[in-house]
Amino acid sequence: MGRILGLDYGTKRIGIAISDERGIIASPLTFINREKSFETCAKQISDAITGYSPFTKIVIGLPLHMDGNESEMSQEVKKFAKVLELVFFLPVQLWDERLTSSQVEKGLKERNMNRKKRVQVTDALAAAIILQTYLDAQ
């Protein structure tokens, strides 16, 4: 199957996760601060994943309202996905990400992790959850 790149596109940061080479297990990698330019974000993602095996696909979380309708952010994610396809020459799969960030935030609070540390890991963990739910569905 090959490695798959998972992304959680947020208002301030983009969480990055990767799968193992067999496409079974997702692991959080890091996050980048979101820039205005999609191309700049794609370059930063490329820099962050340097040294990992070639990727076969990108999975990016699609933010939906609880009723399943798209949000304003959904349109932005779709535009970013098109840029990723052009930059990485890989297919991009949009994946329902409802409640992933809040799920991660709640779990970290329950572990009494301080706010500064939570900010550092939330986005990458959310990306890993998005990617893992995708992998589990395959």
Short recap of the structure:
This protein has 138 residues and is of the alpha/beta class. It has four helices and five strands.
What does this structure look like?
This protein is α/β, with parallel strands linked by helices. 45% of the residues lie in helices and 25% in strands. A 5-stranded mixed β-sheet has the order 3-2-1-4-5. Strand 1 (3-9) and strand 2 form a beta hairpin. Helix 1 (38-48) crosses helix 2 and helix 3 (100-110) packs across helix 4 (115-137). The termini are close together.
List the helices and strands and how they pair.
Elements: E1 3-9, E2 13-19, E3 26-33, H1 38-48, E4 55-62, H2 72-88, E5 92-96, H3 100-110, H4 115-137
Parallel strand pairs: 1-4, 4-5
Antiparallel strand pairs: 1-2, 2-3
Helix pairs in contact: 1-2, 3-4
CATH class: Alpha Beta
Strand content: 25-35%
Topology order in helix (H) and strand (E) letters: EEEHEHEHH
Please report the number of helical segments.
4
Record the strand order, biggest sheet: 3-2-1-4-5
Nearest-integer average pLDDT: 89
Shape: globular
Q: Please compute the radius of gyration using only Cα atoms.
A: 14 Å
How would a textbook summarize the main sheet?
5 strands, mixed
CATH superfamily: YqgF/RNase H-like domain
Ranges with pLDDT <50 over ≥5 residues?
none
Descriptive key words:
5 strands; five-stranded mixed sheet; globular; 25% strand; alpha/beta; Nucleotidyltransferase, domain 5; 138 residues
